[in-house]
Amino acid sequence: MTDEKRIYAVVAATVQIGGFTVAQPWGRQVAQVAHVVSKLRFEHDRQFYPITTIVVQARDSAELEHVTQLLWRNGVGLHPVTFYDTNDEVYGRDVQVATAMAVLATKSETFLTIDYLPLWGAE
Q1: Which residues are registered as beta bridge partners of 16?
Q2: CATH number for the domain including 106?
Q3: What global pTM score does this model have?
Q4: Which range marks the domain in which residue 65 is found?
Q5: Residue 121 lies in a domain
Q6: pLDDT value, residue 123
Q7: What tens digit of pLDDT does each residue of 40-89 get?
Q8: Which runs of E-coded beta strand occur in 1-110?
Q9: For residue 2, what pLDDT is reported?
């Protein structure tokens, strides 16, 4: 089996805003993944082609930020993209919250960064 490129998407189960935690319902998490994968595809080459997408879950927005930084720093030239959600009713007025990240990478390129995160929906 080759170490082929895949889209790895990480979505936060909760986000922290100004000292409080907002749980992200399943439907909102799915939407965040759709947004960030679309953003990655657009920024990568603006074409659609079939590619395996793996969705994993970070416990919260702090862990999401942590694994995003690990991917930037791992030295293999990865370029993760982050989706920032805005929703006045959920997060507050004029607040942007990082809710999901996606990266085009091989499985080995995600070693010791996001490989420990559980698959989304696996409880």
Answers
A1: 21
A2: 3.40.1490
A3: 0.90
A4: 6-110
A5: no
A6: 66
A7: 999 988 878 889 999 999 999 999 999 999 998 876 789 999 999 999 99
A8: 6-12, 14-17, 20-23, 53-58, 81-86, 96-105
A9: 67
Structure tokens that stand for 37 in this block: 């994968």
Q: What angle do CA 59, 23, 105 make, to 5 degrees?
A: 40
CA 122 vs CA 58, 84, 108, 113, 117: distances in Å: 12, 24, 22, 19, 10
DSSP single-letter state for residue 90: H
Q: Is residue 45 part of a domain?
A: yes
The length of the chain in residues reads: 123
118 located within any domain: no
pLDDT, residue 72, reads: 87
Residue 24's Cβ-count burial label (10 Å; 0-12, 13-18, 19+) is buried
Domain count of the chain? 1
